[in-house]
Write a structure and sequence with these properties.
Oligomer: single chain
CATH architecture of the largest domain: Beta Barrel
Strand order of the largest sheet: 7-6-13-5-12-9-10
Distance between the termini: 32 Å
Number of domains: 2
CATH class of the largest domain: Mainly Beta
Radius of gyration: 19 Å
Number of helices: 4
Strand content: 25-35%
């Protein structure tokens, strides 16, 4: 479970360190478990920073935040601002939506379902049950437009990535990579274990809201079929 109590946040020792010549990383949890309470604060801080003229980019990661300034000389001012924002950021949970993603497991769209099952000494049906019964939380969007980094995969399904990544993974592929599960919004190379396929559009560049998912959303996978 992710910790989100108000007492947990103030006890963290925040780390701020340089990344290249024009960037700083705010890392409040180098030795702590992942927490949505921390992530929600970082997302709020990113929104505030994007309004500052000195900030070129504010990029949330998994319980960390990278900020790029326009000029190197602005780093000192940014560091002071980060410390101030961290201590003033609200700790309330933001409103979240629950998005259901229909998935066809196995078959041509899920070529690694059987190998994942064998790795864990489970049946394919048990893998699907574990994968679809969990509730996942979107921590941030990255890697590809619309690619959501999800927290909540059962430890029983933690699976190493492929030894040799595939050159092309179709859009809509649902996979497992290490301790995470996710959906490829666009076709791309990748090394995740692909267990299913969804027809849901994750990224539409012509839409007013191009990304289906956003930080804070909860995701549930709904099995449409299981092909062995």
């Amino acid at each position: 479970m992710m910790r989100d109590s108000h007492r947990f946040i103030p006890s963290l020792q925040i780390n701020i360190y340089p990344l290249g010549e024009r960037a700083l990383v705010l890392d409040p949890t180098p030795d702590a478990a992942l927490s949505w309470a921390v992530q929600s604060k970082l997302c709020w801080i990113a929104e505030q920073l994007r309004q500052l003229p000195i900030v070129e980019e504010a990029i949330p990661g998994m319980n960390n935040l990278t900020i790029v300034v326009r000029e190197t000389r602005q780093l000192k001012a940014l560091q002071a601002k980060l410390d101030s924002l961290w201590h003033s950021a609200p700790t309330e949970e933001i409103d979240s939506r629950t998005i259901e993603i229909p998935v066809s497991y196995g078959g041509d769209g899920g070529p690694d379902l059987l190998s994942v099952a064998q790795f864990h000494h489970l049946s394919p049906e048990e893998v699907v049950k574990l994968h679809s019964q969990a509730s996942y939380q979107v921590f941030f969007i990255g890697f590809q437009p619309g690619f959501a980094y999800l927290e909540g995969l059962s430890k029983r399904l933690h699976t190493p990535r492929l030894a040799t990544p595939r050159l092309t993974i179709p859009a809509g592929s649902v996979g497992i990579g290490g301790e995470q599960t996710g959906i490829y919004p666009l076709a791309s190379p990748g090394g995740w274990q692909i267990i299913g396929q969804t027809q849901q559009t994750l990224f539409n560049p012509t839409s007013d809201t191009p990304c289906l998912l956003k930080p804070g959303d909860k995701v549930r996978f709904t099995p449409v079929e299981i092909a062995l």
